[in-house]
Amino acid sequence: MDLLQTYGPALLRGFGVTVLCWALGTLFGMTLGLLIALMRHYGPRWLNWIIQVYIEVIRGTPFLVQLFVLYYGGPLIGLRLDAVPAGLLGLTLYGSPYFAEIFRSGFRAVAPGQIEAARAIGMSEPSIVRRILLPLSLVSALPALVNFSIILTKETVILSIITVPELMYQVSRMSAETFRFVEANLVLALFFWGLVETISRLGRRLETRITKHLLERT
């Protein structure tokens, strides 16, 4: 309790930064991943090859290495970012290929006959994507989207390496000043456990609502 009284405000600020980085990184990564999936679904073959190289490079290298290259190597090409924007960009780039593959598998789960029927009655491709492809693919893709969002929460601890003042950064500071590493890391584990449980419950509730909405439409 004495640790919480002394370091509680700093830990709460760090947790707030963690939640912010996770939320924005997930949102931006999911948006970019959706755009990548749509470009692979509708784009020409040469664009698909370029996107495939991007996906394989990001998925084949550790997030820590990507973050170091972005933050410390960026100035070599004129890209100078503060720690927090660099962390957000790193999470976005790291998460987008995984989200893209999740969306792509969701697209493939949609029955081709439904797309063909929509085209037969004269629906435009944007309308097909908005009203048929995305809603139906989201039902099958949502569990995987939630699962990878949870994985991204744990990746935020790496942002402390580039001095983003998130929870791991504050816990490391507390450990260095008090030499009480077990208690500090236990607090870290409890914070992340609460965040993961919250995301899981919200994901299950969202999945139930989407499924119910689609059933009412049909």
Q: How would you explain this protein's 3D organization?
A:
- Helix 1 packs across helix 4.
- The protein is 84% helix and 0% strand.
- It is mostly helical and 218 residues long.
- It has a single domain, classed as MetI-like (MetI-like fold).
- It is built from 8 helices and no strands.
Task: Summarize the structure in short.
With 218 residues, the chain is an all-alpha fold. Helices cover 84% and strands 0% of the residues. It is built from eight helices and no strands.
State the share of residues found in helices, binned by percent: over 70%
The counted number of beta strands is: 0
Enumerate how many helices there are, as a single number: 8
* Assembly state (oligomeric): single chain
- Shape-level CATH architecture: Orthogonal Bundle
User: Into how many domains do the coordinates divide?
Assistant: 1
- β-strand amount: under 5%
Determine the structural class based on helices, strands and strand pairing.
mainly alpha
Secondary structure layout plus pairing:
Blueprint: H1 2-42, H2 45-59, H3 63-73, H4 83-109, H5 112-120, H6 125-155, H7 167-178, H8 181-217
Helix pairs in contact: 1-4, 1-6, 1-7, 2-4, 3-4, 4-6, 5-6, 6-8, 7-8
